[in-house]
Amino acid sequence: MLYRKSLPLAVALACAAMASTAFAQQQDTPADAAGNAAGNAVTTLPAVNVTATLDATTEKSDSYAAHAVTVGTKTPQSLRETPFSVSVVTRQRLDDQNLTTIEDALKQTTGVTIQRFDGAGNFNTIQSRGFNIGSIQLDGIPISQDGNYATGFDTAIYDRVELLRGPAGLLQGAGEPGGTVNLARKRAQAQLGGSANLQYGSWDAQRAEIDVTGALNESGTVRGRIVGLTDKRDSFVDIVKSDKELFYGTLEVDLTSRTTLSLGATKQKINAVLDQGLPTHADGRLIDFSRATFAGTDSNDQDTESSDMFAELEHRLDNGGLLKVTARQVDREMEYYGGRSSTPVGGTNFIDLQTSHYKRETRNRNLDAYVTTPFELGGRQHQLLLGASYSTEEAMSVYGSGGPTSLNIFNPDYGTPLPAVPLGPYNSETKQTQKGLYGQVQLKPMDDWTFLLGGRFSKYETEARNPITGVPGKGSDPGTKFQPLVAAIYALDKNSSLYASYAETFVGQSAQDKNQNILSPRTGSQIELGINSEWMNKRINTHLAIFQIIDKDRAITDPSEPTASIAGGKVRSQGFEAEISGQVRSGRAGKSPQVMPTRI
């Protein structure tokens, strides 16, 4: 737990007051019959209240254990107060293990599988509890994620990576039931600081990174931060490479003592080589290739460009509550061209390369506003969250392919020319719109019990059209979904809490029925039981949970029309998870052992 800067002064004043009182009572003065010092009146000093603010920031914590999380909660909550399965990759761990991509960070996280679609590592899907994670949150604001985009920006701009396993529909609306990932950015600091790093590694890996933050005026009410990097690396596979450039800048302005405006932008470009694996024998047997073998040519190219712009306004209420409004726009472009294996290896050692050319653009726009406030009921203090959100996602794409090109896979000529595949204008366009109202109340009717009651009303709509002809396609019928969340937490002692939770979510589908109508969204629900613990003054976190997810109304083949689909599929996922992470001994990282999160 991190404290406000006023805390050390408050503690010092309290200690000084107590020491002065004790010293005065120990003077050798005669006492009267009432036991008071003769000639002296009893003086009662005013109470000194010491308060602390929970902060989820991990930068400079020197630990692999998070003190608080924001994923699934909006405001920081200790892990013991969180009725979910949550893992956090702290800034210290990102640095120590040199985890520079979101995929690398999540590979080290309990219950997560990364499915990789290219040799450069830029096309991936994230899976948790048997389901794809369909959205990534940027400071709590969700954007879509799929295998055709780099999952997120370089980890150099993040304070931490938070993973919530299970439905997160209350705060993000539509989403896969397996979970969500929240990427919490680095914030501008008033104290001048910074770092510069240079790296050189195998296969000509080169990386240069700079990070500078500090106050921009004498009072510290205006603060800035910039992060820039270049990362270039080849591979043990011939031709394959990935070159990345990134710039991040943010500005924070204290409009008043309680109101802060944050502005920022990120730009990232990646130029890589399209590599989609090696062929097999016709019967599926793997071939003992040299690990340097590449099934493509030196014309293969893969480019992604991402930008993020945001504005946040925070107002801290007199009663300790918070009002926050966020606007965010994320633009992503992706284009690849190249040959990839389309046939198995035959007796001639030659394979066919299919030439593909694909281009896509996506724009996510989000507006989110919420207020949290404490309130008293029955002589106890409780917490209320109310919010509203509006989001759109517009995507356009076009695809083309060319004839086969032969390549000797055992003696490849990477200079083999590929056919030109020119692309025309975008011929597919979709727009998804989602509106939501959400709320949650945290009740503490007894010292050891906490109950969470929440829900979200979401209106979700999908539209499709051909941007060349302007002819609209079939869209989904707009409808309202209610996504409940209920949970109970019981404090066993000062270290551990038991919890039980139930949550729901839904996922939009693209499959069509025999009338060419898009199917209604899938629905998912989860029941989870677990125990969260904090040990050794919160230097060690442990977690154990069992869960069951039911996902239904999935698209399956229509028995009466094999080319169409109906909503009728059902999937069950169940299991257990355990994790331990943190710091065995107090002290700075590098001088004291850290516990690596153990995956079960």
Automatic annotation (TrEMBL):
GO terms for molecular function: siderophore uptake transmembrane transporter activity; signaling receptor activity. This is TonB-dependent siderophore receptor. Residues 1-24 form the signal peptide. InterPro entries: Beta-barrel_TonB (IPR000531), Beta-barrel_TonB_sf (IPR036942), Plug_dom (IPR012910), Plug_dom_sf (IPR037066), TonB-dep_rcpt-like (IPR039426), TonB_sidphr_rcpt (IPR010105). Residues 255-583 form the TonB-dependent receptor-like beta-barrel domain. GO terms for cellular component: cell outer membrane. NCBIfam families: TonB-siderophor. Its main location: membrane. GO terms for biological process: siderophore transport. Residues 579-600 are annotated as: Disordered. It is found in: Cell outer membrane. It holds the Pfam family Plug. CDD domains: ligand_gated_channel (cd01347). It is a multi-pass membrane protein. Belongs to the TonB-dependent receptor family. Keywords: Cell outer membrane, Ion transport, Iron, Iron transport, Membrane, Receptor, Signal, TonB box, Transmembrane, Transmembrane beta strand, Transport. Residues 79-180 form the TonB-dependent receptor plug domain.
